[in-house]
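User: Let's play a game. I give you a shape written as tokens, and you guess the letters that built it. Ready? Here's round one.
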């Protein structure tokens, strides 16, 4: 076990990094603001051991907001060569219907269109396949709801392309983002490169040793096409926090790697130089001569037209520049300079547009309780990714994750203790909520038991006292998965969106906030009342009113004339009941 990632010595780097001086933390934070590679929470991506630490951010939401502040959201990535892509992560439908939480994500996107005139993404993506028990994919339902909201709020989507990824595997964030970036690379990058302006690099000023500006000083014929793609990731706050935390704590398992790999679609800044007859030229194969004016030319048997441009092979079809033409100079003519090259550079970035988790503001006590338990289970996602990496021998166990695990377990213990207190209102509400499904109390106690076993197994590595064997790590990972699945399956209070809530731009209106179990049960009971009962109730109310007036001094009929088929018929109104004269 000495070399196993769970050994105590493997976590020494994280403990030593946290004890660095405030001055070093401040300096490294400034480097991060200047575009350094330091990650949030003290992780330097791609470097070991950790040599720089940013101010420790224990709260996931603060870390996410810090990332948006330092790297910038879509407002800071607006230029002629920047194209924005909005990605909405789906949430599993309930009986083929949009849920309250899923609607809050889509409302966040709609509000950006409505309230931010400059927010005009080139592409909007909806992700999510068909979940178990459903017939409609999450992506299709989300797009339909989004279009309905745009119509209700007069939101113009002219010039905005839409990509609906309803692949069954797109329910996983990593695969969904992979499909989105592949769609961007295959169908949109070509057009964006055409619209992006090409910048000249005068005399190789960009520092590329193999560009034409350096090979042939004074020509100034090296050009560059750069396109920047910014992804606005739209989801609920806890979901985006997990994406951000996994990206910085477990870079190898980051779900955002597909966005980073999109940079590889561009070519390097110093592409090879195409030579005559298709061969490649370098310093050793180029012969240069100078004319009386100091201009440089290639000594060769061919020349090129001024408007001929060489383009890298991968994006030659994208830019659609004319291929070079080979012509032979007449005697005494000087050959023309070589055609310029164009190097393609693709830059990517992302930011987080979050929706507030709606169930923490419900009126029903049981829904708030379940929402808190559900969020505690979802906060274990970064730990799950880290433990997967440990089992696969790809990364070390992080002590911060152990501290988070212990804290979440204590919070769950306090929640379960509430169920065994003298207060009966919460237990009664949960009993009504659990009608027809598993008992929430039993589920939470089982999940807490599995989580406690996981804590017991990883404690030696988390406290830096001893190592943990591979079999123990595997067992702890199974216990963690079981606990998270149980909480997610039984504690998610999400419900289908009601018809009266469609088309609303905000999710904090009275009807939307009234998401309690009691309100939902009352509405469901009201919808089930048969029409005969409604008619009988109305007749009884009318009879009671007539009897009351009769007791006061007799009925006083009110004659009203009504034209029916050209004839005037006299109606008599008794206590709200209109009767024909012949009845």
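Assistant: Ready! My guess for every position:
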């Amino acid at each position: 076990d000495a070399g196993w990632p769970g050994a105590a010595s493997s976590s020494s780097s994280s403990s030593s990094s946290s004890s660095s001086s405030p001055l070093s933390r401040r300096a490294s934070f400034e480097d991060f603001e200047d575009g350094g590679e330091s990650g949030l929470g003290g992780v330097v991506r791609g470097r070991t051991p950790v040599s720089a630490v940013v101010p420790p951010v224990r709260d996931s939401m603060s870390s996410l907001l810090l990332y948006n502040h330092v790297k910038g959201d879509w407002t800071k990535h607006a230029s002629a060569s920047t194209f924005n892509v909005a990605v909405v992560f789906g949430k599993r439908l309930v009986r083929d219907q949009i849920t309250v939480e899923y609607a809050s994500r889509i409302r966040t996107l709609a509000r950006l269109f409505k309230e931010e005139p400059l927010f005009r993404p080139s592409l909007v993506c909806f992700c999510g396949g068909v979940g178990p028990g459903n017939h409609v994919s999450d992506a299709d339902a989300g797009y339909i709801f989004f279009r309905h909201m745009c119509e209700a709020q007069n939101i113009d989507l002219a010039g905005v392309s839409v990509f609906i990824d309803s692949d069954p595997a797109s329910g996983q964030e990593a695969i969904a983002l992979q499909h989105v970036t592949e769609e961007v690379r295959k169908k949109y990058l070509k057009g964006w490169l055409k619209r992006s302006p090409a910048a000249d690099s005068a005399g190789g000023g960009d520092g590329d040793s193999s560009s034409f500006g350096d090979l042939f000083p004074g020509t100034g014929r090296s050009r560059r096409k750069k396109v920047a793609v910014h992804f606005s990731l739209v989801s609920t706050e806890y979901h985006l926090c997990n994406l951000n935390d996994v990206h910085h704590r477990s870079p190898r398992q980051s779900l955002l790697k597909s966005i980073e790999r999109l940079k590889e679609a561009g070519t390097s800044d110093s592409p090879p130089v195409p030579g005559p007859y298709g061969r490649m030229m370098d310093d050793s194969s180029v012969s240069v001569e100078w004319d009386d004016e100091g201009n440089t030319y290639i000594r060769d048997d061919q020349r090129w037209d001024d408007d001929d441009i060489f383009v890298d092979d991968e994006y030659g079809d994208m830019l659609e520049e004319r291929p070079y033409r080979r012509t032979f100079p007449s005697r005494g003519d000087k050959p023309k300079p070589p055609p310029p090259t164009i190097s393609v550079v693709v830059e990517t970035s992302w930011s987080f547009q979050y929706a507030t988790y709606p169930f923490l503001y419900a009126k029903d006590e049981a829904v708030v309780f379940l929402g808190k338990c559900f969020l505690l289970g979802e906060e274990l996602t970064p730990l799950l990714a880290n433990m997967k990496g440990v089992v696969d021998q790809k990364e070390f166990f992080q002590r911060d994750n152990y501290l988070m695990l212990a804290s979440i377990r204590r919070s769950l213990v306090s929640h379960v203790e509430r169920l065994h207190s003298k207060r009966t209102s919460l237990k009664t509400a949960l009993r009504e909520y659990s009608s027809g499904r598993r008992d929430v109390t039993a589920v939470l106690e089982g999940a807490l038991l599995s989580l406690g076993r996981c804590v017991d197994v990883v404690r030696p590595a988390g406290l830096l006292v001893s190592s943990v064997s591979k079999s123990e790590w595997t067992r702890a990972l199974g216990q963690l998965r079981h606990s998270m699945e149980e909480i997610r399956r039984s504690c998610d209070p999400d419900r289908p969106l009601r018809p009266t809530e469609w088309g609303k731009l905000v999710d904090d209106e009275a009807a939307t906030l009234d998401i309690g179990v009691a309100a939902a049960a009352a509405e469901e009971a009201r919808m089930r009342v048969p029409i005969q009962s409604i008619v009988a109730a109305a007749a009884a109310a009318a009879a009671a009113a007539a009897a009351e007036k009769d007791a006061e001094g007799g009925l006083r009929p009110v004659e009203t004339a009504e034209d029916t088929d050209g004839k005037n018929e006299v109606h008599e109104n008794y206590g709200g009941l209109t009767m024909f004269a012949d009845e």
